Amino acid sequence: MSPRSPRSRLAAAAAVLTSGALALAACSDESPTPSADEATPSAINLLGPEDPATFAPLIEGFEAEHDGYSVEYTQVPFDQLNSTLQQRLGAEDSTIDVYTVDQPRVAQLAAQGYLVDLTDLADEAQEVMSPTMYDVNVIGEEMWAASIWDSTQLMFYNVDALTAAGVEPPSSDPAERWTWEETVAAAEQVQAAGETEWGLILEQIEYYYQLQPLMASLGGGSGITGEDALTPDITNDAWVEAMTWYGDLFADGLAPRGVGSFETSPIFADGESAFFVGGPWDVGVFSESETNWAVAPMPYFDGGEQVTPTGSWSWGINPASQNQAAALLFLEYATLNPEGNLLSTEATTIIPANAEAAAEYLPQLEELAGDRSAGVADLITYELENTAFARPLTVGYVQFEEVMNTAFADIRNGSDPAERLAEATSQLEDAWSQLR
Amino acid sequence: MTSTIAGRTRKVRRGYGRVALAFLAPAIVVLVLVRLVPAASALYGSLTRSSLLTGDTRFVSWENYAELLGNPDFRGAVGVTVLFTLIINPLQVAIAFALAVLFTRRLAGVRWWRSLVILPIAVPPAVSAVVWNVIYRPDDGLANAVLGVLGLPPQPFLTSPDQALAAIIVLLSWVGVGYWMLFLIAGINDVPGELYEAAALDGAGPWRKFFHITLPMCRRPLAFVLVADTVSNLLVFGPVQMLTGGGPEGSTNLLMYDIYTRAYTLGDLGRAQAEVVVLVLLTVVIVAGQFRMLRGDER
Hints:
Chain A has helices at about 5-15, 20-25, 50-65, 80-90, 105-110, 120-130, 130-135, 160-165, 180-190, 210-215, 235-250, 265-270, 280-285, 325-335, 340-345, 355-370, 375-385, 395-410, 415-435; strands spanning about 45-50, 70-75, 100, 140, 140-145, 145, 150, 155-160, 200, 225, 230, 275-280, 295, 310, 315, 350, 390. By secondary structure, chain A is of the alpha/beta class. In chain B, helix 2 crosses helix 13 (about 270-300). The radius of gyration of chain B is 25 Å and the shape is flat. In chain B, about 75% of the residues lie in helices and about 0% in strands.
């Protein structure tokens, strides 16, 4: 029952990638890491999905420390980030210098030749980051990106609604972590009492990142297996059971249909859901809400493993950039420099990837929402160290995530889980056949 | 003498030809660069395959096409697209024509009603999609609130494989009908008034006037609207991407969206380009059929 360490999981994942990584190395550009020492004052273009206000403090900090340099930030909507990157990087667009990389996509972006090799930073990165945040950017022997943030998931609950419905609220202590079965029973009780419209909502309602722990908790694995990490394994009993449970949340009216991922947090903030599983960013979002909430650990299935999502964004450098040395200077400031990394979290609540920055940041996060966010810092620290389960490292992650997110959406809308997962298996086999 | 005049005429014609060519040159260059070259590139790309792991691109002849034909998602997308085309185009043209006839009559507040129908054109497509997404929400959407007032049961709309395509058709018609109506209003206004006067003298009623004067006299604008509407609906992408992602269960997976997914999210450029070629061929076949039908009417 005790969770395996994230390191051992990553090591296992890395092992199955050997052949893919070798092939990757064979096709990658041999261009060396640019040197930040050669940077000359210039304008650096940054592309990402966040609101521009998020990076304003970081950019100000960088510009104040580096005379003559400026950073222009371009925002791309979250759900269009990956396709936009494919289009613009594929066209060798030199107007992107630094860009946001979803961590499981590092392997494919590197294989496509869309990332500059940052191996020269590897030693420094390893020193300042947790093993999870370092390993996720390394394929084979080479480092292709640098982590800026980390994440985990917490269960928020509506204190007043639970109390009014006679439900004893869960503890924030991981030792007293609720099961999904307990959570659903409590959610039904609150809903039946008419205290909230919805019982239990997962924020990223159709995304693999947040749903992966359901299957992993039942021992169903990440969904990917095989020596080259290009064999789908999503029809095993654990996957079908987890997806049946997930589909029932909507069929039974505990969670809403027709509301997209990231459109869900206002429902909890408005006091319309008893339980809500969301990220540390929600601590900031909900701090402005009038709802009386508190946090508890993300649940697990009775008798299953305690696992929580992890991983976030890394930043990489575009090989078509004409400004790679300056881009590297900025990337180093934002990720490896604790001061810069901390500034990236000043306007949003997320976990800095830099360990020193994280140590300084978590107590601030704890205080952000007063009594409501009590216990957040300890809980996040515990989850990152003990239950974090990274998304699989595979060159086929892009296809995997797209196919799975569509399948999750269908199951949410009422498709039979076993049949839909079998269909997704065929879709993955077809999509991955094009990678070989 | 005659030959001198003929020679001069030829020279003048050649001069005109050169001037005409000079004026046409920019358009021809643009046509070649932004239409023909990409088309040729897509056609060639559809015969190749690139491996992400090795970086190699190899010529595979018709393999991409053969694989597409065996692919259930692609076959589903073709089926959905054909069904969508068969429903949405007659529906939109019929509603646009009916509104055009109505709004060219002397009715109270007709200009106001006309503006109301045209208004959705001014709304950016993405905003329309977001607005309709809220309208269609199964639990707290406006559509179900209206159905509730009428005593009807709530509907799942975009979350049901049986209703999602119809919901997209309603959204697109809300946006498109006003636009196509404008062309048809212009066509109806061009019908000579004497024809209606003569028909009235002969004792023809409104329906007779409609079927024997308005409809035949509007054949040209109707032909244009039908063809342009068909092409525009074959290229529908935004609402599908924003509202359904091709689902549930592929029920709204129109070809244009399938191409986008294959190219930019699955990274399968070879087969995506083969699909582009199929979509272009499908468009050509449908439009050619429409032209043929309309030419038949002229005989």
